[in-house]
Write a structure and sequence with these properties.
Layout (H helix, E strand, L loop, with lengths): L3 E9 L7 H19 L3 E8 L4 H10 L3 H18 L6 E4 L3 H16 L3 E11 L4 E3 L17 E10 L5 H10 L4 E2 L1 H12 L6 E2 L1 E2 L15 E2 L1 H6 L1 H4 L8 H6 L4 E5 L3 H14 L8 E4 L2 E3 L2 E2 L10 H8 L1 H10 L7 E2 L2 H31 L11 H22 L3 H22 L1 H4 L6 H22 L4 H11 L36
Parallel strand pairs: 1-2, 1-11, 2-3, 7-12, 11-12, 13-15
Antiparallel strand pairs: 4-5, 4-6, 6-8, 9-10, 13-14
Bound molecules: ligand ME8.
Ligand ME8 binds next to strand 1, helix 1, helix 7 and strand 11.
Length: 509
């Protein structure tokens, strides 16, 4: 039986159309999911939308539509965006779906009945756009530390979750699972800023607005949006009504999130799971932010373009590649169209595109598009064959450590070696000498085989391009097992005619 791998993105707020920041998390999750599928896992990749809350209620009101109408429109657009980015999710969850609403109500009731949720009064400082409560000491200049906007004092009768009860068990779990929170700096941040000062019980219901999941035994209250949202990771698997999928996929292997919501995923979520007596996720990775001109890309600031404009202008794989390659995974990075163009030109057009085009064109010119390997090897071949043969293991190591940009760089490095190999072996010179025909065939075979291996390893990152390359090679050796050793490219095939993969993007200046 295949080993399972459950990976999730956050479920995003459909308060406005999604921007390149949402694409960033989703593309990375997709690349990891595709990589795991390639390497033989039974992958469950989930994304979706977090549709309740005061912010959405307000937005819908401003737009003169119901909250449901408001979110339905954005979800349609989100699904179209994920399609245009080739996102291979297995399930798109929506918190307004009936089953989720019902299951969250059951979770809430269970916690109430067993005494982990109790009724009290809440007074606190609340940031509406972030849907977060803050303590006085967490504010920055009296404003929300996340978004910098005004916060308001809220006072209401409310239900509370006994977060404090789980503090010691949470710390123990952190200590026993050093890879639970990555990068490590985020774990220290959680301990120093939130856990060590002491966890307070969490307010988990609201009465100040209506757009949420009603507490079924006290319908003036709606469930706090973060309890509603975090539960998504298990309600979609049937919890608490059906345990078939829970048995198969829970606990999640990886919750991929942006750094600002690590605290919800590594404090509130594990404590809720402990209260429900369920295993905790294996890992939460909090990646950095993509910024524009050094500031956060923000739906509410509206300082961004529709990501489809980039896809239409430069192609889906240029956008995917840029998101995956440009920023060291975990750190913040700047998003700029100039950098996207520069990346596409240098790596995709020059390094990859040129290599594939030159190699297939020469195979046509000298051997009518038929790969043959007479194995007239020379010393210069060793380095290339060695690098290509080791690539699978190197990529595996990098991907297991979630060093996605480094995994890609390793493949690019091998592709650069291939280009260097062409410059050094000069096939066009060999072609002038009939006695060097077998050597020429070997050189081209080595290149074609290197391209095949790199194309398979690139498939999680730039799937459309990978498929185009493998189609040009006309090979059936396209699965992970075919990477077992160098030399699996068939010799009884005819390559398809060369096609340009990426045109260089000309810039105005
Ligand atoms: O937080 N750079 O939804 P959200 C990188 N509904 N990633 C970014 C980004 C940026 N500039 N902007 C957004 C929520 N993201 C909750 C989640 S999960 C149970 C509930 C990505 O619409 C990043 O993954 O505000 C971030 O964590 C997420 O979008 C926030 O999406």
């Amino acid at each position: 039986m295949k080993e399972k791998f459950y990976i999730s993105t956050p479920i995003y707020y459909p308060s406005a159309n999604f921007h390149i920041g949402h694409c960033y998390t989703t593309i990375i999750a997709d690349a990891i999911a595709r990589y795991k599928r390639l390497t033989g896992y039974d992958v469950y990749f989930q994304t979706g939308t977090d549709e309740h809350g005061e912010k959405i209620e307000k937005k819908a009101h401003e737009a003169g539509v119901t909250p449901q109408e408001y979110v339905d429109k954005i979800i349609e657009d989100a699904k179209d965006l994920w399609k245009s980015l080739n996102i291979s999710y297995d399930y798109f969850m929506r918190t307004t779906d009936d089953y989720h609403v019902r299951r969250v109500q059951k979770i809430f009731k269970k916690l109430y009945e067993q005494g982990d949720i109790y009724k009290g009064e809440y007074k606190g400082l609340y940031c509406i756009p972030c849907e977060s409560f803050w303590t006085e000491s967490q504010l920055v200049d009296g404003k929300c530390p996340d978004c910098g906007r005004e916060i308001k004092m809220v006072s209401e009768e409310a239900y509370f979750f006994k977060l404090s009860k789980y503090q010691d068990r949470l710390v123990k779990y952190y200590n026993e699972h050093p890879d639970f929170i990555l990068p490590l700096s985020r774990k220290n941040e959680m301990l120093n800023n939130f856990i060590n000062p002491g966890l307070e019980d969490l307010c988990v219901s609201r009465t100040s607005f209506k757009w949420g999941i009603p507490v079924d035994f006290d319908p003036d209250h709606v469930v706090y949006v973060w309890v509603d949202a975090l539960s998504n990771y298990i309600t979609t698997l049937g919890y608490p009504e059906d345990d078939t999928l829970m048995k198969k996929y829970w606990p999640a292997d990886l919750h991929l999130v942006g750094k600002e919501i690590v605290r919800f995923h590594t404090i509130i979520w594990p404590c809720l799971l402990m209260a429900l007596d369920l295993p905790l996720p294996k890992q939460v990775f909090g990646h950095g932010w993509l910024k524009i001109d050094g500031g956060k890309i923000s739906k509410s600031l509206g300082n961004y373009k529709d990501p489809r404009e980039y896809i239409n202008a430069y192609g889906v794989d240029a956008v995917r590649y840029y998101a995956l390659r440009e920023v060291p995974f975990g750190s913040d990075g700047n998003f700029s169209e100039e950098a996207l163009i520069a990346r596409t030109n240098s790596d995709l057009a020059n390094t990859l595109g040129n290599l594939v085009n030159r190699t297939i064109s020469m195979s046509y010119k000298y051997f009518d598009g038929k790969p043959v390997n007479p194995k007239v090897l020379e010393e210069i071949d060793d380095e290339l064959i060695h690098a290509v043969s080791n690539l699978k293991d190197i990529v595996e190591e990098k991907m297991n450590g979630l060093k996605v940009n480094e995994a890609i760089e390793e493949i690019m490095e091998v592709l650069r070696k291939c280009n260097k190999y062409i410059d050094e072996t000069t096939p066009w010179t060999l072609a002038k000498d009939e006695s060097k025909k077998d050597r020429l065939a070997t050189v081209l075979y080595n290149l074609l085989e290197s391209i095949r291996i790199c194309a398979i390893l690139l498939s999680p990152f730039i799937p459309e391009t990978s498929e185009k390359i493998l189609t040009q090679l006309n090979t059936k050796q396209t699965d992970y097992d075919s990477l077992e050793y160098f030399g699996k490219l068939e010799q009884d095939i005819t390559l398809n005619e060369p096609q340009i993969l990426f045109n260089r993007i000309e810039t105005k200046c």
